[in-house]
């Protein structure tokens, strides 16, 4: 065996491949030519060259367009994905540097009330990281959604997941000023409509902390604290939510916290799959958010 031999990658006819891919999407040489800014004859010629090289017909030429063959259908998905990946990579080059993409999921309450106001500082420090943010209601599949990180609320125990503690977010009563005027004592809260999340232990925990009788729970149930607090602002009832996440509404007095009574049911965690390799963008974000969390836990 001649160990000096090595595989030589065949020359790829990129122009012909691009002509075929565009023609297959449009099922028209004419429309492909318009997209590629060349003549219809040039596209047809490139596709013909590719067919001759492969030894198969990729299209059936019809009087009014093209019909892709089984061989063309087999080639198209891989080719389209390859061009998409190349385009995505080229888009990452900007201003003399390579942009990195960071895909982050976050509980909607934290994203709106805590993360968004701080993101300009992150972008200023890391201008070549493109952050792609999606929100959820704490139910998320990192693998299926292709996320690098997600910020969750809970106890930090998620299967096959590495979790970095950020900070706790104690819950307290929040309501509109008109309702707050009626709340002189903690037991007065039980006479109001109690807006609820899907966590059934939150209101019982607050009434226990307040040493007040627990009423029967009735009223609307929300999967988002953002929606629940908006309902409270509109006078629909009393919410139990983290004041930390609604500082803006508390500052502008559209929302009131009538009592300094809290119940803690978990913390926020930055999580990733253990099987997910850590990229430079992930390391940068992890270090940055740890610093922001430290400031939140211990404000100056």
For the record, the count of structural domains works out to 3
Radius of gyration: 29 Å
Mean pLDDT: 91
Q: Which shape, going by the Cα principal axes?
A: elongated
Main β sheet profile: 5 strands, mixed
- Stretches with pLDDT under 50, minimum 5 residues: 1-9
Give the CA-CA distance, first to last residue.
71 Å
Helix content: 40-55%
Query: What is the helix/strand order?
Result: HHHEEHEEEHHEHEEEHEHEHEHEH
Strand content: 15-25%
Task: Spell out the CATH superfamily of the largest domain.
Answer: Periplasmic binding protein-like II
> Going across the major beta sheet, what is the strand order?
6-5-7-13-8
CATH overall fold name of the largest domain: D-Maltodextrin-Binding Protein, domain 2
Q: How many DSSP-defined strands?
A: 13
The structure class reads alpha/beta
DSSP helical segment count: 12
Detailed description of the structure:
By secondary structure, the protein is of the alpha/beta class. The protein folds into 3 domains: about 15-90, Arc Repressor Mutant, subunit A (Orthogonal Bundle), CATH 1.10.10; about 95-165 and about 265-295, D-Maltodextrin-Binding Protein, domain 2; about 170-250, 3-Layer(aba) Sandwich (D-Maltodextrin-Binding Protein, domain 2), CATH 3.40.190.10. It contains 12 helices and 13 strands. A 5-stranded mixed beta sheet has the order 6-5-7-13-8. It has a two-stranded antiparallel sheet with strand order 1-2. Helix 1 crosses helix 3 and helix 1 (about 15-25) crosses helix 4 (about 70-90). The chain is elongated. The protein starts with 13 loop residues before the first helix and ends with a helix.
